[in-house]
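Workshop exercise sheet. Pairs work together: one partner reads the sequence aloud, the other fills in the structure field after running the prediction. Swap roles for the next sheet.
Pair: D.N. / O.F.
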Amino acid sequence: MTTDEQLKEIVKQKYSEIALQDKETNQSSCCGSGCCSTEVYNIMSDDYTELEGYNPDADLGLGCGLPTQFAKIKAGDTVIDLGSGAGNDCFIARAETGESGKVIGIDFTPAMIDKARVNAEKRGFHNVEFRQGDIEKMPVTSNVADVIVSNCVLNLVPNKDGVISEIYRVLKPGGHFSISDVVLMGELPEALQKDAEMYAGCVAGAIQKQDYLGLIEKNGFKNITVQKEKPIVIPDDILNNYLGTKELEDFKAGKTGIYSVTVYAEKPVECCTPGGGCC
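Structure field:
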């Protein structure tokens, strides 16, 4: 059985490989088995190109939504992006928060951090920084962020409850988050649930939508809102690598839905850590 630490190492290795490729290479490269090794990542991505601050060098096509579009970022805000990759959402957040604000990207893949820092330096962005770290233990002090965004990243973390608890800790009282992620309605076939490649591709790591929203509520957040929801359809040529003919037929005829959701929630102004003392 794959442990949480093993899953995290698999994810780190996979995204280190992706960091060394551009978006076009990711979308066209194929592995020796004949399956497109990064296709599962790119089938989820939304189009960022019309958003202010978009930078093609920072877009690796790895997201499943547009959280910064829904994040209600204001001028002067401090914004943190979890799983910041090559910096795409950070640069869009900077366009919203302006030079008077601050944007911090956190990623645990060194190759992604290196790429993001190069992208920021090219553009002279002095109020955007990237920190290497685990979002289960963020390298950020408590009560510092006005807004937190994240794009298709919590799926990559086995301990989702731990990350949501950290989001609560790091947000200022009255702060909020907007996070795009993948959730399920119905059970995935066992072959997809257990495959580490599908975990790294954000599918096998998905949990039930109600469980996802329940973790957010359990950690003390209020005004929880699903801002956007869309179905994700995994192409047959990917599913064929994991499912036999009968399994594929049963899966497609069943009631399992895979969705990209963008979820908004607020940390109360008068806040207490669930189970702990007041902040």
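Discussion prompt: The domain at 4-266 is CATH 3.40.50.150 (Rossmann fold). What would you look at next?
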